[in-house]
Write a structure and sequence with these properties.
- The chain has helices spanning 16-30, 53-83, 102-110, 134-141, 170-178, 180-183, 207-215, 232-242, 265-273, and strands at residues 5-9, 33-40, 85-86, 89-90, 93-99, 115-119, 146-149, 161-165, 188-194, 220-225, 247-251, 254-257, 260-263, 278-281.
- With 282 residues, it is an alpha/beta fold.
- Strands 5-2-1-6-7-14-11-8-9-10 form a ten-stranded mixed beta sheet, with helices on both faces. It has a two-stranded antiparallel sheet with strand order 3-4. It has a two-stranded antiparallel ribbon with strand order 12-13.
């Protein structure tokens, strides 16, 4: 099974066009329908503010900014659709605009997609619609696998050389299963185990996941590494660079505390310092 519906979050940020291009590349690869989503964040009045001319001015400023952002996002999506030809036909696509908080609206729409594409937090972002933690919030929602695109963009379509981070956990298994359509088409798959434990019933850590992948037609190479006192996230990024990986697949770890996502160390490092797309699941 491949990806037949790809949901891509679009805002007015400078990296939105890069996410759109990547979504179109994946749509061509899997003959998928691309669903672009722009979310209008509701107006939030300052605390202890009174109604009157000052409030009217604040609301007009908000409304003008949201309309401008929506126009930029819509134009970017329409431009992609007008230029994209797949198999002699136009891109199968749909444009949606929804009201609410992006961190709530995007996971809701994700239930009707096979893959969700969001962006890494923009440095010095000025858009009015996208919170800095949208990528981890959507990833931790657990509705569908999420592809997080670096704000710097990508130099080549992801999925030719893939690094799968494996520790035998539920989250890693969900990420690997969700990424199977990409793994099956990859030229090279490296399964990375950092400080592996013999917890899968086999004397060679990674043997069972490699055997499972092989039954799906994925010929994976198992690599084992040691973290010692190093940051596991840093090791993953370093080994991905060594292998010239264009995609990292990993489980997203963390828990919710008073509506605030608290991520594990490796997840936090990769989300902050990623140089290639991350395919994650929780």
């Amino acid at each position: 099974m491949g990806f037949k519906t790809i949901l891509v979050h679009v805002d007015a940020g400078p990296s939105a066009s890069k996410r759109l291009k990547l979504s179109a590349d994946l749509a061509a690869r899997f003959e998928a329908h691309v669903l672009g989503l722009y979310v209008r964040r509701p107006f939030q009045a300052p605390a202890f503010s009174d109604a009157g001319p000052a409030m009217d001015s604040l609301y007009r400023t908000y409304e003008n900014a949201v309309k401008a952002d929506e126009a930029i996002a819509t134009a970017a999506f329409n431009d992609l659709v007008s230029r994209q030809i797949i198999g002699g036909k136009g891109l199968s696509s749909e444009w949606r605009v929804a009201d609410g908080l992006a961190e709530t609206v995007v996971p809701m729409h994700a239930r009707y997609a096979d893959l969700v594409i969001v962006g890494q937090a923009e440095p010095d972002a000025s858009t009015t619609t996208t919170p800095d933690d949208l990528a981890e919030t959507v990833g931790m929602a657990g509705e569908r696998p999420v592809l997080i695109v670096p704000h710097i963009g990508v130099t080549k379509p992801p999925g030719k050389t893939v690094m799968l981070c494996w520790n035998g956990s539920r989250e890693a298994a969900r990420a690997a299963t969700g990424a199977l359509p990409i793994l099956k088409q990859a030229d090279k798959v490296v399964v990375l185990l950092v400080d592996p434990e013999d917890d899968d019933g086999h004397e060679k850590p990674g043997f069972n996941v490699a055997a499972w992948l092989a039954r799906h037609g994925v010929n994976a190479i198992v690599k084992r590494d040691t973290a010692a006192d190093s940051d596991v996230g840093g090791i993953i990024l370093s080994r991905a660079a060594d292998q010239d990986a264009d995609l990292i697949v990993m489980g997203l770890y963390g828990h919710s505390r008073v509506r605030e996502w608290v991520l594990g160390g490796a997840s936090r490092t990769l989300l902050a310092s990623m140089t290639v797309p991350l395919f994650v699941a929780h």
